[in-house]
Amino acid sequence: MRGATHIVWDWNGTLFHDNAAIIGATNAAFAELGIPPITLERYRELYCVPVPKFYERLIGRLPTDDEWKVMDLTFQRYYAEHRVGCGLADGVPGLLAEWVSAGRSQSILSLYGHEELVPLVRGFGIEPHFLRVDGRTGPSGGSKAEHMVRHVEALAGLTGVDPARTVVIGDATDDAVAARHVGAKAVLYTGGSHSRASLEGVGVPVVDTLAEAVTVAEWLPAG
């Protein structure tokens, strides 16, 4: 049944419109190594996961372990200070409520730290719309794929959510990789960390609004 479709939402750059905080934190991290600042457009052209590979695209080499630690700490500190000025993407509360009212389920899986993510989601008053809210545990900088395995397994254990009836909605190519890793589908949204051109090579639907993403998610598992 179409109503059995489950959405796994990404947070940063998808439900949470934090582009300004992200680019500011990135440039603050770059400054620690004397790397010139970049524009949001350049960021969206080059960004990839794992994040050290993104830095390699910019500086021509992978950061050393010590450089990565300094950059990561700087990024996290700046982002924590500036995320307070960011809000949900347009239409998010209504989209979430409508999905649940139609008898469907949804959850959040993010690479943002779990201890920071949960109170942030709760603060927007949207936590009751989700079966689970899972952030990253362990070191930052990696892929979402293994986190997705744990997330989907937990959902299956709680409610019987089927990966084949699951659609991941996110703003990064890594969201599609993670979806494929567990046998789920994906829809990628152009309003976050990646440009449309960088998303279109992944081979999944690409949309410009979250409303479009939800519409695609309704029929995608049946395709």
Can you put this structure into words, describing what you see?
The protein has 223 residues and is of the alpha/beta class. It has ten helices and eight strands. Strands 5-4-1-6-7-8 form a six-stranded parallel beta sheet, with helices on both faces. Strands 2-3 form a two-stranded antiparallel ribbon. The two termini are 12 Å apart. 39% of the residues are buried.
Radius of gyration: 17 Å
* Biggest sheet, spatial arrangement of strands: 5-4-1-6-7-8
Largest sheet report? 6 strands, parallel
User: Roughly what fraction of the amino acids lie in strands?
Assistant: 5-15%
Question: Distance between the terminal alpha carbons, to the nearest Å?
Answer: 12 Å
Overall domain count = 2
Oligomer: single chain
Order of SSEs:
EEHHHHEHEHEHEHEHEH
What is the second-level CATH architecture of the largest domain?
A: 3-Layer(aba) Sandwich
What is the level 1 CATH name of the largest domain? Alpha Beta
Give the mean pLDDT. Answer: 92
Shape: globular
User: How many strand units?
Assistant: 8
Organism: Streptomyces aurantiacus
Protein name: Phosphatase
GO molecular function: phosphoglycolate phosphatase activity
GO cellular component, one term: cytosol
